[in-house]
Amino acid sequence: MTPEEISQRLELLRVEHRDLDAAIIALGASTIPDQLQLARLKKKKLRLRDEIAWCEDQLVPDIIA
Q1: Sequence-separated (6 or more) residues with CB below 8 Å from residue 48
Q2: DSSP characters over 1-65
Q3: Which residues of 52-62 are buried (b: 16+ CB within 10 A; e: fewer)?
Q4: What is the Cα–Cα distance from 65 to 62, expressed in whole angstroms?
Q5: Which of 22, 48, 49, 56 has the fewest CB atoms within 10 Å, i.e. the most exposed one?
Q6: Is the dihedral of CA 29, 33, 39, 43 positive or negative?
Q7: pTM of the model
Q8: What is the pLDDT of residues 14-61, one digit of tens each?
Q9: How many CB atoms lie within 10 A of CB 13?
């Protein structure tokens, strides 16, 4: 992947992460939240966070200490 492709993917992941955060908040605020759906959304959000971290690591050059 080129740095441009990684940057585009990173932006898409961040948008999806924000959307999931909003969905989790909305679902949790309902009178009887679906715990299984909440767990699935939170798991997906964690996977997105890991992928975001990987993309960010690819864009930052390694510093030799």
Answers
A1: 13, 16, 17, 20
A2: --HHHHHHHHHHHHHHHHHHHHHHHHHHHSSS--HHHHHHHHHHHHHHHHHHHHHHHHHSPP---
A3: beebeeeeeee
A4: 9
A5: 22
A6: negative
A7: 0.85
A8: 999 999 999 999 999 988 989 999 999 999 999 999 999 999 999 988
A9: 20
* The residue to which tokens 């909440």 are assigned: 38
* 20-to-1, 27, 63 alpha-carbon distances in Å: 25, 10, 33
Q: At residue 60, what is the residue type?
A: V
- Sequence-distant (6+) residues with CB within 8 A of 59 are 3, 6, 7, 10
Supply 2's token pair: 């080129």
Q: How far apart are CA 7 and CA 24, in angstroms?
A: 26
d(CA 31, CA 59) in angstroms, rounded, equals 43
